[in-house]
């Protein structure tokens, strides 16, 4: 090597100074002596002549090119010529290469190098990569440079780009297509493997004739070995051995895993396997001998130490490599019962998958196929690893099973590949993998889930889950400490395995409440009798769980079973519409015959479809005809129909049966064949229509008219004949017999209709109690309550009947009282009474009495916010049936104009819980069995979740209660001119949108009948008093 002046190839007169190196294969020249990669290379195999020309010059001649160099002295010139002639003299071009190529290449083609405008012809050969200007230069052996791959590393950067990184320079290449990029990457990885490999061990092992072929398939020159089984295998069979797991077969490379190959291990593979001692050792191990057993000798406690002590190095090597091998064996108990040995669960799997770059945020957009890169993936020893190719020994990345917190299976059309899944790690990273092979996808999902789900939650693995993983949660029995839960989402059902508990199912479409609280860190699921708080320990996977659960809890399609359901399996949209019409539109003339406004109906349908649970139909905000049309449209557009497409024709044909008893029997048989949700929905609807036609003298919708409207709607026909109508007419007419309604329930329904039809305007007859503090007397009054009556008007009417004057600073109020819950609530003077009666339980009643604390409350109201410490307890209340779910705990509360926030302590920055104030009902009092430490008040969420708050003193409780009322009613707690001004005439609302009477809520049926003169003709009068709600 040395400095030479080189004449440029264009034949210019000036020379360029170059550092020149010569080895047996190439003459290379560089810009300076510190450069690693040359400016040009000349293959010595293509040099045909080297001679001196002129002063200090010499020329190097190839078949197509002549290179002229100039030395600094005559002696130096002669030395270069001599060395070059010795290197090339007598060398045959065809002795080292094929006639048409200077190099035996593994892969070749054009690649674009970043920074150059033109493409370079690139050749991967053995353990090197060569760069040429074009294919012609490659053919004549004149190139730019070569890259030794023993210091190289390949990294994919884009769908067509990749980097070849060395300690000295980064070569950024771009292929012509993604497929070619994958081939280039694989070829360069092979070159790296070849550069790092050492054939010395392989050559030594192959010298044994039995090792020259794969032990499994017989392929020649196997480069892998199962060191604990003492067999050599080819690359393909090595993959199968890896799939067995390292506890069965420990696979190592003969060329790359240098540290593994001790002299003893090489001898174990090279000796004649007929040697009796080695053969006996192998036989014992393969038959299930315990290599970890005790020898009973203190100096050599194990077989391994015993073999070493007796210089049996080969046997010691075999034992050492089989210390953790799991082999079938028989365990014989004292009673000689033979039981199969079950090794611990060990999950192994490998294969190609397509992967995107890992992400720190949720995937919101579709990932195209071009964004995925092909990777060889393995799951071994509780570690999921991915490699550039199956030939690489160093993974691009790895994820321990203990770090995986969630596995999500995407829908088939979510991304560019047909089948994809997502892995979430504890370090807040998301990994997306895909494949077009459904079986491979299923096997990967199963194997990965099995690797990180504990044995206590193993039943989750048998489910066809969409998402599975680990979350922290609290339940109603213990809100102090979180516990780890394992969850799997399957359709609309959330399966859960909590600590020290058996599995349970949460039907998401039947939840009473589903909300995200505390700055999106807690997911609250409220079902019958229980509240579950799922905590967001990690934002990335928690946001995925929240989105998936909210979607699953919504309406999933257009069939009945895919709707959000009540606890009785009736779609919420049906339950809400029926309830609203029963309350506000049962006497509306032409109900169900008149259509609502199309835009409002479409908006209602969309809101119900999006989240029926959150929509509350309210009088004044929603119109009766809009709601009735929404209900009809729901049934008209229902997929499969209410009667199912399979049996609909049978229902219609049944209507033509003449014999009534046979017809009813056939209807009952068809009813029992319906799916459970369809059957429950049909019964609820027919019960409602039965009630509608009972007041046909008010709404003009008799049996025939309802059948005309609902026949084509429910059977989804064109309505050209009366066949569908006749079937609906039969169901309504024979409702009692077909649905086998109990006599008592029928009597109650008939009594409701009687109250509506015999009371002018369809008003309710309600029992109200009056209590005078001075006389300690309680009186009972039966008051006719129209839909527009307020609490103040009801109070004045009862006081007028008793001729009780309202004095100054006497705060007579109407109270809602629940005896069973031992609680009461003063109604706001503008609050309508009828909706309160509609929500009553059997133990509730209305009471007129003085509110002695009102004056103090009015004086207190100077600010609309409050904060302070109170004791807190939560329990679930279902229609007045309380269920205890915890104890009282100190909490700090802040009440503002918008919300009530609860903090764990005064110094906490984030609230534990938060409730919108105007959605709460606040009551005074508490059940004695709960043993309240001080005075209490509590509040209800609209879904009947009861929270108890305990104040230290009565004045403090009044202050909190007054602040609640002031916020909820914008400071208007009591009429400014007193109660007398509320005695005004009450105009009845339009009967089309008016309120309807409900059942009397107090006393026996006979007592309630006696409250209305028309009841004297009631044929349903009974001789014995019976509780009305039995």
Automatic annotation (TrEMBL):
GO terms for molecular function: GTPase activator activity; phosphatidylinositol-3,4,5-trisphosphate binding; zinc ion binding. The lineage of its organism: Eukaryota, Metazoa, Chordata, Craniata, Vertebrata. Residues 1-89, 104-193, 346-453, 863-969 form the PH domain. Pfam families: ArfGap (PF01412), PH (PF00169), RA (PF00788), RhoGAP (PF00620). Residues 563-739 form the Rho-GAP domain. Residues 199-269 form the Arf-GAP domain. The keyword Zinc applies. GO terms for cellular component: cytoplasm. The gene is arap1. It comes from Sphaeramia orbicularis (orbiculate cardinalfish). This is ArfGAP with RhoGAP domain, ankyrin repeat and PH domain 1. The keyword Phosphoprotein applies.
